[in-house]
Amino acid sequence: MPKTHIEQHFSGSETVRDVVIGMSDGLTVPFALAAGLAGAVDSNFVVLVAGLAEVVAGSIAMGLGGYLAARTEADHYQAELLREEREVRELPKAETEEVRAVFRQYGLEGAALEQATEAVTRSPQVWVRFMMKEELGLEAPDPRRALRSALTIGGSYVAGGAIPLLPYLLPLSIEQSLLVSAGVTLLALAVFGTFKARFTGLPWLKGAWQTVLVGGLAAGAAYGLARLVSGFGH
Which terminus of the chain has a smaller tally of CB atoms within 10 A, N or C? Predict the structure, then answer.
């Protein structure tokens, strides 16, 4: 018997993108803030409280940003849908020619071209969906996408932000807490990059290295800026 070919495609790209956005910022921004404060104060408690406040504020801001982005995408799709419905109704000849132009890009000509065009334009609903996808490159958004995106980004930010702050709960000096925080943050970035690579198809080592490099550079730049600003206060 012939073997059944089953194609496996990853379908959670939007969720992974939201996790990446929230987690990467959550790992780097609170670490940079805590590291900058560690150079200005001599209290783990002060660093921890300030870091927690940033995590709360950052998760809300990031989640709200994700919500508004998803809502904007949905509103844009709805506006384009209404425009296509109006053009199909009021300008059928021009829209039919646009359907032909799309099929010509796939190499159809002659009778095959006319049959494909007639099959699409026979139903206004199919016609509009075809134009939305093939002409504009737009897919109908999930109506629950905005809230899910906000919760995913915000939750990922909290999860990421907790990691660099945990060492400041330990009975260590401020310098020791900073070193441990830097170590666990880089380790978390490497693990996060490995899992991200698993879902995006990259080699795991490349994914881990890229995430550590980008996250480390971002955290280092933010840390340097925080130290510079805190230096002006002395």
Answer: N
Q: Model pTM?
A: 0.76
Distance, C-alpha 4 to centroid of its chain = 34
Q: What count of Cα atoms within 13 Å lies in the side-chain half-sphere of residue 147? A: 2
Max distance between CA atoms of the chain, in angstroms, equals 81
Tokens of 139: 């897919």
Question: Which residue pairs, CB below 8 angstroms and at least 24 apart, start in 221-228?
Answer: 221/32, 222/28, 222/29, 222/32, 222/33, 222/36, 223/31, 223/32, 223/35, 223/36, 225/32, 225/36, 226/32, 226/33, 226/35, 226/36, 226/37, 226/39, 227/35, 227/36, 227/39
Q: In this structure, are residues 22 and 156 in contact, taking their beta carbons and an 8 Å threshold?
A: yes
Sequence-distant (6+) residues with CB within 8 A of 197 are 203, 204, 206, 207, 208
DSSP 24-92: HHHHHHHHHHHHHHHTT-S-HHHHHHHHHHHHHHHHHHHHHHHHHHHHHHHHHHHHHHHHHHHHHHH-H
Would you state the structure tokens that stand for residue 74, as one six-digit string? 């949905």
Q: Residue range 73-85: average pLDDT?
A: 90
Q: How many CB atoms lie within 10 A of CB 49?
A: 14
